[in-house]
Design a protein that fits this description.
alpha+beta, disordered N terminus, Immunoglobulin-like, 5 helices, 2 domains, three-stranded antiparallel β-sheet
Length: about 290
Amino acid sequence: MKLTNVFILICVAMLFATTGCDKKTVKPDPDPIQLSFIVQHASTAGASDGAIDLQVDGGAAPFEYRWANGATTQDISNLAVGMYSVTVTDADNETATDSVQIIFQDNVSSVTDIDGNVYTTVKIGNQWWMAENLRTTHDAQGNLIQSFVYDNNAEHEAIYGKLYNWAATMNGSSQEGCQGIAPDGWHIPTDAEWNVLFNFLGGSAVAGAKLKSTGHTLWVELTENATNETGFSGLPAGGGYANDKYEGVGYGTHYWSSTDSGAEVRVTTLHCDSNVMLFKVYKTHRISVRCIKN
């Protein structure tokens, strides 16, 4: 036998010796954790008969569940109107965070933006409002828009949505009541529309308590008479500046108005008290957006 053939046979034998009998099965990495919810809404504004059935796809079992209200089970029940967020951790210490809204059934609907995000909507008086902060990255025509996330933290985005400056919110318009980056059939609220909401709830001195989510898990400080009886579920999303500085999460939130007032714009502000304020901020600030139905 030629020396070359002998060398080939030796190499093949060594290959089988090292990989054939001692071969190990490599487990593929699991798919990323994906969370979804089946929601039973509360029967009335004051009831605690809502429930959330959490669905977990992907990840590596077993899972740990950490709800913002302190629950550690996969599904939770006996829930009042409000926003409920959960963080799921799998056996590989990978995590996913998302949130879902419990609202009362009579005055609840939904709207979907062009990115496919579905928002709970609530009827308060004669107005329909989004009960979640906008999180779209495109306008209704599909054009990419500028958006920001508090501290560039995906967990903040899952709970509080995205932040926008005024130019992005208005999508280049200066017209009061314009669609801006709202879904079709909706628009950016005006000062007058915000005031209609406050007056329906008894005035700005008491409206804040009726618009805020309840509980101290997200709010660092929360007025004790916060009821969220409207289902608006205002969250302490904080805000940011043009220099990428962010502050205020846990303590308060602002929502844009489409009413132009010069270099600054009046915004609706919820903080750790019962009242609600129309407060002026610069147009370059990065804050939350709630839309109102046409």
